[in-house]
User: Fold these one by one.
Assistant:
Number 1:
Amino acid sequence: MSRYTSATDADRRAMLEEIGAGSIDELFADIPQSVRLDRPIDLPPGKPEQEVYAYLRDLAARNVSAEDEVSFVGAGMYDHYVPSLVDALLARSEFLTPYTPYQPEVSQGTLQVMFEYQTAISELTGLPVSNATLYEGPSAVASAGWMARLQNGRGRFLVSRALHPHSREALATTAAGYGTAVEELPLAAGVTDAGALREAVGDDVSAVFLQQPNFLGAVEDLELLAPIARNAGPPAPLLVVQVDPMTLGVLRPPGDFEVDVAVGEGQSLGNRLDYGGPSFGFFATQEAYMRRMPGRIAGETVDADGKRGFVLTLQTREQHIRREKATHNITTAQTLNALAGVVYLAWLGRRGIVELGELLLHRTAYARRTLAGLEGVELLHEQPVVREFAVRLAGLGGGGFSRVIERCAEQGVNPGYPLAADYEEHADGLLVAITEQRSRADIDRLAEVLGAAVAAEREAVHA
Amino acid sequence: MTQTIFEKSVDGRRAFVAPALDVPEEPDALPARFRRAEPPRLPEIAEPEIVRHYTQLSTKNFHVDAGFYPLGSCTMKHNPKLHERVAALPGYARLHPLQTPSRAQGALQLMWELQRALAEIAGLPHVSLQPSAGSQGELAGVLLTRAFHEAQGSRRHKVLTPDTAHGTNPATVTMAGYEVVKVGTADDGGVDLEDLRSKVDDDVASLMLTNPNTLGVFDRNIEEIATIMHDVGATLYYDGANLNAVMGRARPGDMGFDIVHYNLHKTFTQPHGGGGPGAGPIAVSDRIEPFLPRPQVVRVTSPGGRAGESGRSQASFELDFDRPQSIGRLRGFQGNFGVFVRSYAYILSLGADGLAEASDTAVLNANYLMARLRDLCGEHLPVAFDRTCMHEFVLTGGPMKRALGIKTLDLAKRLLDHDFHPPTVYFPLLVDEALLIEPTETETRETLDAFAEGVKAILDEAAEDPSIARNAPYGTPVRRLDEAGAAKRPVVRQAM
């Protein structure tokens, strides 16, 4: 199979002759015999395009996607509508198939997209500086931790227990390398316990990590928490907030609270679910950290004729220049996903992001009130929420919770994300997410199906 | 003049139409003190102008669908169009990462099969697909090494990287909390064994190696290097950026490597997207396996299958979180799954023979282009390590600079006027005025000839008038840009 190569036997002969080699084998003479593979790789033979398509189509058909059921699962990635212009623009070879823009004269398209993306993220977060993406949300949180380490070298991170479990874990995984301890801040009534933060914060704290809205859907009181988090030093610990960009049309942005770093998962902004990636992680910060931040940054400049143009800038932070003294090891990031993000934000526009935020707010409030009215369903907390909320399914016997989920699934409804795996204290907790693709009728259907499933399981307990 | 999308914004224009509010309005849904006062100043613009804006921007990009892109160590091969079609299937594209595994069996099977294929290609038994790109794979690899040593009660402080290494290697070492120790290069382009021996002791955790290395040279001493590292209990790490040279010919696992990362956006043809997305899976040996990131995709066979079915055993795929020695997650969810779909499509399309043929042709093309350039331009652009190369090779522009008065940068910029993307320039660092050239297997002989002749034409032109190349390019959307000024007074967002 060689449909992606062009060398014919005649080509090979002529090329080998030019090289002065007798065979292709000769070209591999530097590989010692003892480490050569003396058999073919143990993989099936290649397949024609139509057979590969059919095989992968059949595997895809074995998944139950948001196309096949009414899904209320969120917990970090959300089933928002991706407008068709995003698909059309991302499919353009000019955006899809170049490498990182190392030659700016022939990369102005990508570089300007990066610059516009940075501007949009700055506007959303209310922070002056953004890079041109990290991989995704949780590793962006971990990268903020590394920046804090470079900034102050202190030995403790404080993380809210309502920071996304994957963010907490990615931070812990990487901090284990450079030896910073990660300590969890407990929750009170669904939000980060301000008293516990006050007690924990100190001159040896490198950074404090919060999430807005937090993993349980609750809006954190950043006005209260931010000054407490910074009440050490000087210099104060860095305050890092993971934010859901989709809520920033209605919620006060991190910049209002002078946070040091705002990071987050960009999937909601025009990117597909894709079973978890690729999406993008955004990273915005204050001017003071610009030369220490990770990732590529596009900057505006002029060319030899004085014409406006864009380049990769502040590259002396980066691994290919600074090597072991670089601010991060990242090189390939998520530029195409950033394009989806900025096109999506342009499509939503200044008014649209507010309108969409309002719609989510009202539908979520409706869903929350409706579910809380069901027998056996209680609110897990009563804090304000924007697009996601948590309930408890009370009075179920052992295994009852998963049977409820299963009963709903049989009715074509995925009612939400069970909290048990991440929060043992919420073994009966369910996190329910709303998007603009979940109508009132869908919410009513969820209430009907979930209500019936809970009732059936409660009955089984009493029987 | 070039305008940004923000400068094209006009108050009152819009592309988005919100779904109607179909639930009762809840005026108190969000208390006023949490509410944003002013909306973010996103553009206000209708769909046709958004499409036109980004379409016009796109035309300012050079890309591999349009032309030759011999960027060394980046493996800019053709991106098959099938891959975009299969990755967009709703069963993948709209699959939520937290879907119950029993309802995501197709995705998990795909990941498991890809793990198996990658394991076979690298000759190491265990694969984690999780890392998002090569750099995150490297970080995973060094953290695995740390966990491996700590489990033995040993704490080491140094990691060795050759002076030919990609910059990501030393940057990764620092992030993982180790000190970088540089190892020199011998005259034949391989690791300087004497220097290596002098730097190896039981405080060394690992050696990170690219083989073939960034000079395009396969290190003939690889087995001895592995022995040196293993004798002090260190691991040997394989940077897979150059795996495209050896598929089906040799496997890192058989060479003695303990940990490998793959760049799916290089070897396995994920389109690079102007700087991502990619994916950087890792493969490891048995002794490293307990420490792999979690979750792992595993295949479970339950005897007898579901109740009532025939006695046949039933296989299913699960996410295994129960890995007590795991280093933990590096990122959210299961990795860049959309990239896995594309790379698996590639492996299925090529199969065992096709992958081997890809590497053979990549090496053939590189040696042919090297020979053509040696013939046409060898006086001014000699090969830095003149021996049979693997999938890429390095020229030095030193003689060109001295004889013709143009630098490697000038040659690169003039190539843009010939509609070629330049090679990687000024890397590897130990070669004066370096050009690192990787043609890949998907280019024709005619394209390679045209490139060699293009380089020759630029050298001839420079012999007449070096100022032409020094001021190039001319035919590009912009000319040389003031990068120093951009870094000195950074403007990194649109002023509003």
Note: Residues 335-372 of chain A form the longest helix (38 residues).
Number 2:
Amino acid sequence: MDSYSVIFKKPVDYSKALEYQHRLLQARQNDEIPDMVVLLQHKSVITIGNRGRKNYLLKNLDEYKELGIDIYHVERGGDVTYHGPGQWVLYPIMKLGKKNVDSHGYLFNLEEIAIRVLRDFKIKGFRKKNKSGAWTDDGKIAAIGFRLKKWVTFHGMSFNVLDKLNGFQTIVPCGLEGDQITCLEKLIGFNNNMMDEVGNRILYHFANVCDRPLTHYFIDKNIPEFIKKLKPPLN
Amino acid sequence: MALPQELFYTKSHEWISFENGIATIGITDFAQHQLSDLTFVELPDSGQTVSSGDEVAVVESVKAAADVYAPISGDIVEVNNALEDDPEIVNRDAFGEGWIFKINVINESELDELMDADSYQEICPES
């Protein structure tokens, strides 16, 4: 079976998406599904990775509650980050080692996807030594944090698109004190189709960089039975 | 990097050397390269009894974390404490000084389940 993507148009609760990832992870480990990738936006949430430091939260729990931002400790690598509407999140569920491109290193490949998306919009993206993710001259635009279980990837990468990710101001993202976070809208201005365009480019470059040609499915459209079966109840 | 021919391998990218009833286990060069520079290795407890397939250790880099599995059943008799201070030993010498833990093997026939270098090479692209 070919690789496929599952695309969510509406923002998804973090806990629901996490449950979905765990189902997919297990299914992939057991070879019940091929390599695949989920593309979605989250409702406002802060996640703290394995070695994440709580002192990078700049507000107290009550204040986060008031802002409507949930907080989760998660099993991925990486530190503190924010997700919310206006940011695409890419969760590849892939068994590493099957393709020659995997030898470039998964982290490298995720960064490469973000850099190529930026190039599509005529923005110079680059890697920074000792700081992962994808960067522009105006700051960090894509963040990475993933986990491997039985060499199947989960968690992944986020890419900031719209200029409404205010939640970043309530944390020290990835523990990067003094570094700016940016988004595509700040760099090239707004247009109505921006989210869709960027989402398409992310999946296009994912397929090329990771050498997993994709069939695309939208979760709220007609999806095949094998996708429906794994889907957690969504809000 | 050429794979050491004398080692056994698993699908989850562990390597195993076996001598005098003791299996020494680490992660392969392919595995360390996927994670990039390691920042932390969560070691198992010495004395712990494990079954083949159990999650035993976690290796982490700045952005990634991966589970390491017991490829064989037995008691963990030694862990590589040097990795606590310098986890990047795994990056520098995955098949040597970067070993992670040792198991006192109960049932040597479990070694037959493991892959040799040629079989592992087939599931692992050249880097």
Note: Chain A has a mean pLDDT of 93.
Number 3:
Amino acid sequence: MLASEKLAIAAHLHVLLRRKTGRVTDTQWMADNAEYATEIVRFARQSAAEDGHVELVPWADKLEQAVLPAAAPRIQDAKPLTPSIMPTVRSLLASPAAQAEAGDSAFDSARYVRGLR
Amino acid sequence: MSRKNKMHRIGLKGLLAYTLCLSTSAWSQVPAALTRPGLVAQDSINGADTAWMMTSTALVLLMTLPGIALFYAGMVRKKNVLNTMASVVAAAALVSLLWFAVGYSIAFTPGNGLIGGDTRLWFSGLDYIKEAGKVAVSHVAPNVPESVYAMFQLTFAIITAALIVGAVVERLRFSALLWFVGLWSVLVYAPIAHWVWEPGGWLAQRGVLDFAGGAVVHINAGVSGLVCAYMLGARKGYGRESFEPVNLGLTMAGAGLLWVGWFGFNAGSAVAADGRAGLAMAVTHIAASAGAMTWMLGEWIVRGRPSLLGLCSGLVAGLVAITPAAGFVTPLSALLIGAVAGVACYWGATGLKRLLNADDSLDVFGVHGIGGIVGALMTGLLASKTVSGVQGDVVVQLMGVGAVVAYSGVMSAVVLWFTNLMVGLRVDDGAEVTGLDITQHREHMGT
């Protein structure tokens, strides 16, 4: 996967986490550092399970696949907070408008990482 | 043909060429040209020119206050908006006092090729003697009172220093900014203004063309901004965190003020309310429009969407590039200059920025440095003898660009080094995270 694609996924998750949980994350580091990404994936799933922010789960899954392909089963086994299929289904039921809005914001967020223009 | 058209900003080579164009009979009716500031009869002052120059002075000041302040403040994070605005206001006030005390004299009085004299320190000699019917004029602008010309030039000194603020926002100590701007204004800006705009300046004598400040203002500020960005280091989190601009609406308001004010900047640099000023105004507008469109198109093609910030940046790029050329080129040339500048500056603020790997926060070098260089070189290529009586020369222009880049770069580094010795450059990490509004000013924006 291209670095820019990883960064885009990280940016999506960055915006969703900030909006849903108030947690501010480091987008570039999330895309680059496996340990940090592991913690963010864990946190996103925990928030989905405990606070009902199900929109986080598909993006946590994507980040896991993008940055931690080998570690994916371990994280899910270690923190079985939510069955991976269920959040994905539930996320499909989330408002398309909300998802689009989050996507646009994520694009902007990634765009301002290394410059304004 | 009046004397007012002879002198301003065309360099000695241009002056000689222009003078040769004057008929012998016309020349014989005009008093001998001034070679230094002096007193002339009050009735030799041109009222229309004076009124236009006073208007232009106000327009150029408007570009900084609030133009640059809004333009920059909209692009920083919310926690640094007031510091950005305060930096611009403080720079304007400090540079004004230094221009009055020292800057004007060493920039615009005869001395040697490198530096002017001391005859106008503290604005001494800028007299208006009602009973004798005399008023002081500059040899560079003999048709308006010297007080007006000195004020007009002051607004250029102000905006040049204010432009650098964009490269250092969000991490430079406020006290360091004051030290740097004060020293830079006297040691860097004033000498370069003398080189290019005072007829005895060494670049003016070699025929370098800079109608309204492509090199003196924009290349100078751009290079200095880049040096500042390197020496200060990147902001905490640069390249890893998203630095979202607080309100690009403010930036658009600032860009609008810049566009309008630039009519004073360029058309005012004709130092007359005449045909050349009118043409300068027209080419200014055309280049701004072309710059906005080509930046927008470039962004649309590369990124898929045109942005408001891209439009605002593109119009500024066009304005910057037409600045050295405004009194020398035709409208069609202005279209080309603006169009090239829009694309070049888009690259300067994106691709080149990545190559340079400096956190030039608001792209001062990418827009003003690159735009100024494009404008200076294209002036050499496109200057029309029909418009100004002078022919451009790309090699001479390149020499001018090189000289300004070298001097501005080296001296900015020296001034920054000294500033660091005096007060330190950066705020500490905690202050940077908290934001400079609170830590430097004990103020914060409302919600």
Note: Chain A has a mean pLDDT of 74.
